Model the fold of this input.
Amino acid sequence: MSSKIDRRIKYTRLALKDSFMKLMQEKPVTKITIKEVCELADINRSTFYSHYTDLYDLLNQIEDGIIEDLNQTLSSFNYTKNEEAIQMTETLLEYLVKNNESSQTLFSEHGNPEFQKKVMMLAHRHLINFLITDRNNLSFNAEYLSLFIVNGSIHVIQHWLKNGLQESPKEIAELIITLADRGLSPFQG
Done:
């Protein structure tokens, strides 16, 4: 019986999340009402409130789940090897493809800028640790270099998501790592 309840809870939360993400594709969270989310999910408001305190609680839980997944992915790779950096980036991009609707919405103009900042800071933290520990002579510039790489990468990913994922995750991963590792030199004649 408890697994049936668990399935219903999972279904309810998934329906609320999906409805919320669909509405966020059209307008910012400040313009969305709980009533709209519940109507789209075909769930009553009291059920919504049994799971979440408000829309921001729902949004935070969605974002926290993504941050946790990304952190686990980033923690499982060794950044000292270029091939592994490409593989890690490709794995992250595949995660975004798998969660395309949420990813596209959260990284869009209707997404929460604080979430985007959290993602950037997470990537920055992992990258800065690599730059400081493995390239001691870069420690002074490591923070600037990391911010440059992370912000550029986030914007490349946003552009890729916004334009319908025309390139494969591997192609975008190779582009990001090439730009991070060698700058524009591979693209100049």
